[in-house]
Amino acid sequence: MKRILIIKVTSLGDIVQAQPVVSDLRRAFPGVKVDWAADEMFADVARWNVGIDRVLCAPLRRFKKERRWENLKAIASAIVELRRERYDVVIDIHGVYKSAIIAVLARSSRRLGYRSRDLGERGAAFAYTGRFSRPECHAWHGMRVSVAEALGYRLEGPPVYNLQLPRAEADVGATRTAPPVAILFHATSNDEKKWPATHWAAVARELTERGFRVVLPWGTPKERSEASLIASQAPSAALLPPMSVVEIAQAIEAAALVVGVDTGFVHLAHALRKRTVMIFVATSPEHCGIHSPPHSVSVGDGRSAPSVMDALRAINNVHGQ
Predict the structure, then answer these.
(1) Tens digit of pLDDT for each residue in 204-256?
(2) How many angstroms separate the CA atoms of 296 and 190, rounded?
(3) Average pLDDT of the chain to the nearest whole number
(4) pLDDT for 177 beyond 60
(5) Strands of the 89-92 sheet, one edge to the other
(6) What percent of the chain has pLDDT over 90?
(7) d(CA 231, CA 208)
(8) What SS3 class is residue 132?
(9) How far apart are CA 202 and CA 192, in angstroms?
(10) What radius of gyration, in Å, describes the C-alpha atoms of the chain?
């Protein structure tokens, strides 16, 4: 086995949690080169993985929203780059039409994907020459199990993410100097996942009392309004400036504590082995939570909002206070 292409196109948290597949492959097949195909919006995560040889990306989401000529040209260029290498095997761990099309376009006679019942879009099955199952277990571990099953190697050890961020050129809102920084990721595109602003404010006030500098990131005008509401109830909490994905990742790496709902940047904090608490309101912690004592823990049952005390107890567990 000389070269493998992994396809996982979106989203941020899923791509973060899929990265251990790379270290598994390199352990199973010494000397293998692993490439990764992703949407341009999330490709930075794969670029941070020191075990990935080549990252292939295209503005798929951007083209869906803005059908402009420059986006189409970028996609065409990405296809040319994709076909520059020949692969021993292509593994699609996304399982929708767009990932299946990438698999077909890649130069390989062996293209593996999920069984029909496990696909996100069943029509994607046209792309594959071989199939593998999606096991009934924790989603992130399941991706590792699926690829190991597909390629016939034994899965060993805990997940290894191997993410190395570029060095920050300037202060990005969180530094390692005193006081320690706590980042509260309150925002999510899914309203059902949101935790009440009053709960966030209570946590922010308590963390301030403990000596943290509390900061609130945001990405859209709506999220900025929500952050401002939290800050109005916890005056010591500060809104971060507009930041890129890389800058937010660098802020996470510099922080002492990360608390947030089930969203991509909180999964990234876990992967970077930061002290992390993930709050579950409407999604399943058993299926897609984080749990790696002592540095990360999930709180909530996924059916209702956990209390402020639940969150503070979880913070105590990861931060030793």
Answers:
(1) 999 999 999 999 999 999 999 999 999 999 999 999 999 999 999 999 999 99
(2) 22
(3) 95
(4) no
(5) 54-58, 33-39, 3-7, 89-92, 111-114, 130-132
(6) 91
(7) 12
(8) strand
(9) 20
(10) 20
Residue 97 makes CB contacts below 8 A (sequence gap 6+) with 121, 123, 124
Alpha carbon distance 284, 307 (integer Å): 17
Q: At residue 54, what is the residue type?
A: R
- Compute the half-sphere exposure of residue 130: CA atoms within 13 Å on the CB side of its CA: 15
List the beta bridge partners of residue 238. Answer: 215
* Alpha carbons within 13 A on the beta-carbon side of 225: 3
d(CA 89, CA 5): 7
Burial 190-213, CB ≥16 within 10 A → b, else e: eeebbbebebbbbbbbbbbebebb
Q: What is the pLDDT of residues 85-122, one digit of tens each?
A: 999 999 999 999 999 999 999 999 999 999 999 999 99
**Which residues of 16-115 form beta strands (DSSP E)?**
33-39, 54-58, 89-92, 111-114
Close Cβ partners of 275 (under 8 Å, ≥ 6 residues apart): 256, 257, 258, 295, 296, 318, 319
Sort strands 296-299 and 238-239 into parallel, antiparallel or unpaired: unpaired
The pTM score is 0.95
Nearest Cα neighbor of 143 from 184, 96, 94 is 94
For residue 136, give the amino acid letter.
Answer: E
CB-count exposure of residue 28 (10 Å: 0-12, 13-18, 19+): middle
Task: At 196, list the tokens.
Answer: 């009440």
Q: Which residues pair with 49 in a beta bridge?
A: 163
| Whether residue 152 has pLDDT greater than 80 | yes
Domains along the sequence of the chain with CATH: 3-151 (3.40.50.2000), 181-319 (3.40.50.2000)
Residues 204, 229: Cα–Cα separation, whole Å: 12
pLDDT tens across 56-85, in order? 999 998 888 888 989 999 999 999 999 999
